[in-house]
Predict the structure.
Amino acid sequence: MAGRLENRVVLVTGAGSGIGKASALAFAEEGAKVVVGDLALEAGEQTADTIREAGGAATFIRADVSKAGEVEEMVNKTVAIYGRLDCAYNNAGVAVSPQLTPDTAEEDWDRVMNVNLKGVWLCMKFEIPAMLKQGKGAIVNASSMVGLIGLPKRSAYAASKHGIIGLTK
């Protein structure tokens, strides 16, 4: 697999499914060595296997982005395996079932904020030093149009995605 990202190392969180998986596959098609970050063991392994079966380079690292130690380990392992981190796509996220703000359980609010917003912050917290040490790198943080316009019955999700936009700016 040769392309615009030949010999680049890309870390994608939430790469076991959805947009994260599609992004990991696209990075690999462009020649990147992809680190598949995900909490779901089977899904993450499957994404990495798909990349390798197509002739690409991929490593799965299981991590919960809401936990600092796991994020730090994921970034450190990436650098240990590939010698660098050129790009990070912080994509991992969760949503809860639609509910009015007064009906939102504190546990649901905390889960969405911990994964969606804190998770992006933690990833940046450990990705930035790795990139500064090597003198360059790029970070893309996934948000949602819901972070710009809101959505009925999605207060926690909208607030977390709006927070990502503010954090990124």
Observations:
- The chain has a mean pLDDT of 97.
- The beta strands are 9-13, 33-38, 57-62, 87-90, 138-141.
- The chain has six helices and five strands.
